[in-house]
Structure formats: structure tokens, C-alpha cells
Amino acid sequence: MDPLTLLRGVLDTAEDAARALVGRERIRLAVTGLSRAGKTVFLTSLIANLLAAGKGARTLPALSDAAGGRIRRVFVVPAGTETVPRFDPDAHLGALAADPPRWPERTEDFSTLSIAFDVERRTSLGGLLPDRQVTLDLIDYPGEWLLDLPMLRQGYAAWSAETTARLRHGVRADAAADFLAFVDGLPADAPAEDALAKRGYTLYRDALRVCRDTHGLRFLQPGRFLNPGPRGEAPLLWFFPLPEGAKGGLADLCARRYAAYLEDQRATFLDPYFSRFHRQVVLVDVLGALHAGEAAFTDTADALSAVASIISGANWLERLLGAAPTRVAFAATKADHVPARARDALAALVEHISFGARGRAEQSGAAVSCHAVAAIRCTEDAVARLEGQAVAAVRGVLLQDGRGATIYPGEVPMKPPEPAFWEAGLFSMPEFRPPRLDPAGASGMPHLGLDELLAWLVGDLL
Ligand code: GDP
Fold it and tell me: Which InterPro entries did the record assign (predicted)?
């Protein structure tokens, strides 16, 4: 074992002992996902189920078991003097408790919330141990920012060459037509004029927006171009990728801003937050990407694998930031859209696209794990008939018209699908209505695998 790993092990043990002594734990769990992945719903369900567990319901059995007892006395820690926005549990829980229930409004950018709970523990003979007090700090940030991590490994020239090459392909080329015409029309030694820089930035950012909103693409950098965060837009952002060979004032200006942008992301997000997360979950709407078609799926897979290789590879992040999350879970969301067997395939698929055929055995950074979850289960498994054959399906209430429907979603491949899959037609994904949260919040929200995911993420710290 190398000396650093050994030292970290000693420090971890000392920290554990110190925590056990005072009987209070603080766990920082970061939750992120590329837009519409289901972050808001995930956090809302987590809060609803923890609050219900505190009232005696066994809503998160695997988490309670991992904690070696019962979760009780759960409360949302009142707002203090935080400088960042707060996740609004009342509004989100209120939407689910409405009649008819609504999905919570999605959150913007960055928010945090802390939940405190006691865990009642028993010895193996049933004797009572002192309660353990745990504060779970939930930090919700846009997954788009994660896509800045791979940029930290690249200089401006390499990033530019890679990004412009990608932009010239497939649906991106249409979305970026105006931007590409602009950069291709620039002389190689274009001067450092801010009017040019701002025009290029605006066209590039608009192209990214069309890629995201019209084509469902996800591998879109830099993250703050799409999610500027609480500080909004600033001159720092006025850069864009230039084609290979560009040199001169404008190229220098873009390169300086690229470096300054990464430095700023580091100073305002990576150092103060990211490096302090104990655990991280990355949510991905893999089913939505299957539904959106081949281009969206391939792009989501590329984005995820770029992030996975940074997070799990060779402690690079830890060397860069001094510390990084030690466990990272990748979770495909909305798994209630597919029946039981397909959910196993979904977990295999998320693993395949995150880590590719090489798997995750050789990773030497954070411990990683892949899951398929439904933060809020809206369906029951059912059987449908397709061309006279019985096929596994799901049954739920459609959001659109409140009608009950049995849906055969299509097959979920265990690895990135062959062309025949796309030719066979689209994977179906209607929006379901969520079940209603009882206004007293005593029974929590039905879910699939939320507790196992949490047990893997934080169970060892409880
Ligand atoms: P965010 O942009 O990542 O915060 O995404 P949201 O959490 O707002 O989720 C977007 C939409 O996805 C919701 O409005 C729901 O329609 C759907 N959704 C999210 N989670 C689930 C789930 O567990 N099951 C189902 N059936 N739909 C979900």
C-alpha cells in the first residue's frame, strides 16, 4: 500500500473514532444530474421518506438496516445564514400532497438543505446503545458543472480542437450552423476585440441551448454557459472554441478566459464544495435518452463516461483538489417506467455507458456503483399484449389526462444498442402522475431502490 493511502486510512480511522466519541455525524451528500434527470424529485422523495421513517414508517428499510437500527426523530434543520439558495422542502412536498398531486417544480442551479435524524441502535443481543445523531447535508448542483471536470485536464487549444470537431458532426452541425459560419469566417489571426468575443460566445451558447433543448444532447461544455449559477453571466464567460490553427489576439483572449473560467469554477465550486463532498450521486435519465433517439443516447453516454473516468480514475481529482468524494454512485432514474426485469438491464446499461466494456474493476479513485432507481414509483408491473404475445409492461395514471393506462415501454438493452434497436422505433416514455403524499407525511413516497442506493452511499458512515 502506498504511504498516502496508508496515511489516509489512518486519518479516516481517527476521524471515525472522533465522530463515534461525540456521537454526532455530519455527512455531505452531493446530488447532481444532467438537466431533467430527476434531481428535484429524488431530493423531495428522500426528504419525504426520511421524515416518514422518523414517524415510524419503514420507508427506507435498507438504509435503516445499514444504520443498524431505526431512524427516528427526523427534522429539517432550519435555515441559518447560508449564502447559497435553500432547497424548498415545503413547496416540493406540498406539490405531491396536492389533489391531484403534481410533480415538484424543478430547482435551479444550486441549493442545499440539511436533515438531522437520530438512529436508535441495538446490540446483537437486543440491548440499547446510545442513539446516533446524524446530519445529512444535501447539496444539489447542476450536473452540467461536472462536465467542466474533463476541461481541467485540457488546455484551451486541445479543448477547442475537440469541441469544434464534435460540433461539425450530426445534429450538432445543424444546431451550430450560425456559430460555425461565424468562426469559419474569422481570419486565423482575428484581433482581440470584445465585440467579436461576445458575438462568438453568444452564438456558441445559443448552439449549446439548441443541442440541449431540441436534440436532448448532454455533452455540452462549459457547464456555466447553460447554467450560469447564482452569479449570472460575466465577461469571464465570453469565450468559445476556435478552429485548429487560430492564433492571434482573439485566440489569446479566448485562451485567457478559458483558463480564468476554470480557475473561477475551481475557486467558487470545486474547492469550497466539491472537494468537501463525502459522497456523490450522479443521476442520469437513461430511459429518457433511449426515448430521445440515437444521437441523444450516444451523447449522454459520452458525457457520462467522460465524468466517470474523471471521478473514478487514478485519484486525479484528489491530487487536484486535495480531497474528493470517496464513493460515487451512478443511478439511472425513473426506473418505474419499465417492468422488473428491464430494471436489471437498466442498471447494467448505466454501468456499461459509465465505464464501458472495461468495467470498473480497475478504477483506483472513488469506489463506484451503478443503480436503477425510481425516486417516486408511479406504476405497478403489468402484462400487455403485443401482436398476440404477452409482454411485461407497467400500469400507471397518465399525467396528461388522469387516465389509467398499461404501457409496454419497449426493451431496455443491457449495453448500448445496435442500429436495429433505433430502426425498430422509439422507446415509449409517457409522463405518469405521481401518487399522492398523505398530507401528514406519515407513509412517505413509494420508490424503487432509493433505500439501497442510499445504504450504499452513506450506510457505512451511519
Ligand atoms: P431535474 O431537472 O433533474 O430536477 O428533474 P426533476 O426532478 O424535476 O424531474 C423531471 C421530471 O421527470 C418530473 O417532473 C417527472 O415527470 C419525471 N420524474 C422524475 N423522477 C421520476 C420517477 O422516479 N418516476 C417517474 N415516473 N417520473 C419521474
Answer: YcjX-like
Residue 383: which pLDDT band, with cuts at 50, 70 and 90? very high
pLDDT of 13 above 50: no
What's the pLDDT tens digit per position in 166-223?
999 999 999 999 999 999 999 989 999 999 999 999 999 999 999 999 998 999 999 9
Q: Is the ipTM of this structure higher than 0.90?
A: yes
Please classify residue 99 by burial: count the beta carbons closer than 10 Å to its beta carbon, then call 0-12 exposed, 13-18 middle and 19+ buried: exposed
Cβ–ligand 1 contact at 107 (below 6 Å): yes
**Percentage of residues of the chain with pLDDT beyond 70:** 91
Q: Is 40 in the pocket of ligand 1 (CB under 6 A)?
A: yes
CA-to-CA distance for 426 and 413, rounded, in angstroms? 13
Q: Is the CB of 409 under 6 A from ligand 1?
A: no
Structural domains of the chain, ranges and CATH numbers in brackets: 19-145+277-377+438-461 (3.40.50.300), 154-269 (no CATH)
Rounded to two decimals, what is the model's pTM?
0.90
Per-residue pLDDT reduced to its tens digit, 396-421: 999 999 999 999 999 999 999 988 88
Residue with cell 485536464: 153
Ligand 1 center–CA 312 separation, angstroms? 26
Give the ligand 1 atom nearest the CA of 35: 2
For residue 41, report the distance from its CA to the centre of ligand 1, in Å. Answer: 5
Helix, strand, or coil (residue 53): helix
Q: Give the residue, by CA position, lying nearest to ligand 1 atom 28.
A: 334
Pocket test for ligand 1, best of 32, 34, 36, 380 (most atoms within 8 A of CB): 36
3-state DSSP helix/strand/coil % of the chain, to nearest 5: 45, 20, 35
Backbone phi, psi, residue 332, to 5° = -75, 130
Q: Which residues pair with 393 in a beta bridge?
A: 382
Q: What is the spatial distance between Cα 423 and Cα 435, in angstroms, rounded to a whole number?
A: 34
Separation CA 188–CA 48 (nearest Å): 57
Ligand 1 contact via 434 beta carbon (within 6 Å): no
**DSSP-H helix ranges across 242-399:** 249-265, 286-292, 294-312, 316-321, 340-355
Ligand 1, residue 378: give the atom nearest the CA: 26
Q: Is the CB–ligand 1 distance for residue 333 below 6 Å?
A: yes
